[in-house]
Amino acid sequence: MSRVPVSIVVAVSENGVIGRDGGMPWRLSTDLKRFKALTMGKPIVVGRKTLESFGGKPLPGRPHVVVTRNADFAVDGAVRAQSVEDALAVAQQIAADTNATEVSVIGGGEIYHQALDVADILYVTHVDTTIPDGDTTFPPIDPAIFEKREEAAYPAGEKDNFPTRFAVYVRRAAAN
């Protein structure tokens, strides 16, 4: 089985905040549409708390692998994994079985931190604001590891709290 790329899909404030009080500290309808387009049809790796933050049910059209140490955790339409490493292996198998082109990691904070070492692509919505009271962060993106391949600015839409910049980063080839 060949490995499909692992992507991280995340929205990050200027000061690295991605969450507050178990949810997102903004309303970005434009970004939610992009998120849906990026993840539709692809297996997604998600932490239990993040799954609970969007209602505790899998998002339609995407096989879910939920990372949790709770052996009793069960949700229809989701597979449980005890670690990010196990979740990525399960998601790779789902991708192979469904001809998906990527595995998408969608959070939360601890899942992102662990998946960053194996991620091939980062789809980052840079939210043009500072969130002073955030409690979950995304690590700084190291330009020595990830090359920014594209970036586009988007003004705040009718249902957006803030303007954003959408960027795609690709892991640089390892130096020999």
Automatic annotation (TrEMBL):
Catalytic activity: (6S)-5,6,7,8-tetrahydrofolate + NADP(+) = 7,8-dihydrofolate + NADPH + H(+)
Similarity comment: Belongs to the dihydrofolate reductase family.
EC number: 1.5.1.3
One annotated GO molecular function: dihydrofolate reductase activity
CDD domains listed in its UniProt record: DHFR (cd00209)
The protein's role, per its UniProt record: Key enzyme in folate metabolism. Catalyzes an essential reaction for de novo glycine and purine synthesis, and for DNA precursor synthesis.
Keyword Methyltransferase attributed: no
The protein's name in its UniProt record: Dihydrofolate reductase
PROSITE patterns per UniProt: DHFR_1, DHFR_2
Annotated metabolic or biological route of this protein: Cofactor biosynthesis; tetrahydrofolate biosynthesis; 5,6,7,8-tetrahydrofolate from 7,8-dihydrofolate: step 1/1
